Amino acid sequence: MVENRCSVQREGVYHWFSILNSAQRAEFLCGLLDLCVPIELRFLGSCLEDLARKDYHSLRDAEIKANNPADLSNLTNITDDVVRSKLLISLALLNSDNRDAAGVLFRTLTHIDSVINNYGLQLNDGRTGEQFLLLFTMASNHPAFSFHQKQVLRQELTQIQEILQVTCGEQQAGTGALATLSPATSIPTYITAPTLNSSQTGCPCCHKTLHREDGAERVDEGIGSEPMPHMTSLSCKELPVKVHVGKPSKGCNM
Predict the structure, then answer these.
(1) Where would you find the membrane-spanning parts of this chain (predicted)?
(2) Which of 56, 170, 226, 239 has its CB surrounded by the most CB atoms within 10 Å?
(3) Which residues pair with 186 in a beta bridge?
């Protein structure tokens, strides 16, 4: 029984992890590593080393550039989507003891305030927001950065998360406002004679209107002029009226 329960919980964790974005995955995995004891870390390191060896040759050139401060100094325009992609690759392939390269990346990433304020970078764009979240999540957890650098990068990450939360809140508020207005949208519909007659039952104002129309016809006939078109014949045709979707009819309260 306990084994089945653990299996269900494990499958739930796997499913939950599979729907996370890259930044959330990296943050969660780093948190798990902090909970591991040294022997567990050495074992996991061996497993990771074996998995990483499969792509060693294909990533060799990119790894050399990622650990070269001169190459990293050219990746300063973080408003460019291509530059951000290269920075992500550089952070992934950066050696854990390369302080010089980490310093170059740190100076590039700490310009995020001026970039957002001066260039009006829209973080609410799905891809842009995810890239910045992943950049600062990886940098704030990377061992190549000093403790002080990680603190600054963590503050920048918190600022980006707050901007995204405010933006998402505004979008949800706008969507809610549209959903509130949509039921009150007037659409034309048609009422046939049976519907009109049934709506007149128990409605004194409707009877008064018909009585006035009949009286007007009698006056016209008494004068001897040409008879007016019979108004009640309109009830046999389909009359366009305005109704509000989602609201019940209020009868005569117009």
Answers:
(1) none
(2) 239
(3) 244
pLDDT at 237 over 90: no
3-state secondary structure of 224: coil
Structure pTM? 0.63
Structural domains of the chain, count: 1
The single residue listed with the structure tokens 């016209």 is 220
203: left (phi over 0), alpha (psi -120 to 50) or beta: beta
DSSP 20: S
**3-class SS at 28?**
helix
The pLDDT of residue 162 is 85
Could you list the residue range(s) of the whole structural domain that residue 159 is in?
Answer: 2-174
Judge whether residue 191 has pLDDT over 60.
no
Give the Cα separation of 137 and 161 in Å (integer): 11
- Cα–Cα distance, 49 to 216 (Å, whole number): 97
Q: Is the pLDDT of residue 93 over 70?
A: yes
161 in a domain, yes or no?
yes
User: Is 108 within the bounds of a domain?
Assistant: yes
Q: Beta partners for 191?
A: 239
Long-range own/partner contacts, residues 156-160 (CB < 8 A, 24 or more apart): 156/109, 156/110, 156/112, 156/113, 157/133, 159/112, 159/113, 160/112, 160/123, 160/129, 160/132, 160/133, 160/136
Confidence at residue 161, expressed as pLDDT on a 0 to 100 scale: 87
Q: Is the model's pLDDT at 102 over the cut of 90?
A: yes
Tens of pLDDT, residues 133-156: 999 999 999 999 999 999 999 999
Q: Is 66 helix (H, G, I), strand (E, B) or coil?
A: helix
3-state secondary structure of 111: coil
What distance separates the 2 farthest-apart alpha carbons in the chain?
112
What is the distance in angstroms between the CA of the first residue and the CA of the last residue of the chain? 66
